[in-house]
Amino acid sequence: MLLRHRFTLALLVGISACAETAFACPMCKNAVETDSPQPRAYMISILFMMGMITAVVSAVGILMWRIDRAEKQALQDSGYGHVLQNAVNAPRPAAEGSV
């Protein structure tokens, strides 16, 4: 197992040492070569779009968590708290026909 990890590490170091240049998208290449504000604006718009996706997914997750918490509390308040118990830890009913 240790030999396998060493081989993988040596392979990754060898590949990294042989790498000469990294290819970039045309907008990133243009941003490095010029002082134009357009590539920077393009990059900021990408970050904004990624931030919006993160915000929407986070909001939905928080909403689902709050609904789950409210439903658990409603079950506890109405006397059905036993429904929330873990089925794995509950005693198994006796099977029919068993001795």
Give a description of the structure.
The protein has three helices and no strands. It is mostly helical. The protein has a domain at 24-80. Helix 2 packs across helix 3. The radius of gyration is 28 Å and the shape is flat. The mean pLDDT is 80.
Mean pLDDT: 80
Order of helices and strands: HHH
Number of distinct beta strands: 0
Helical residues, percent: 55-70%
Structural class: mainly alpha
Shape: flat
Cα distance spanning the termini: 50 Å
Largest beta-sheet details: none
Taking pLDDT < 50 over at least 5 consecutive residues as the criterion, the unreliable ranges are none
What count of helical segments does DSSP give? 3
Radius of gyration based on Cα positions: 28 Å
Q: Strand fraction band?
A: under 5%
Concise description?
With 99 residues, the protein is mostly helical.
In terms of topology, how is this protein built?
Blueprint: H1 2-18, H2 26-33, H3 37-77
Helix pairs in contact: 2-3
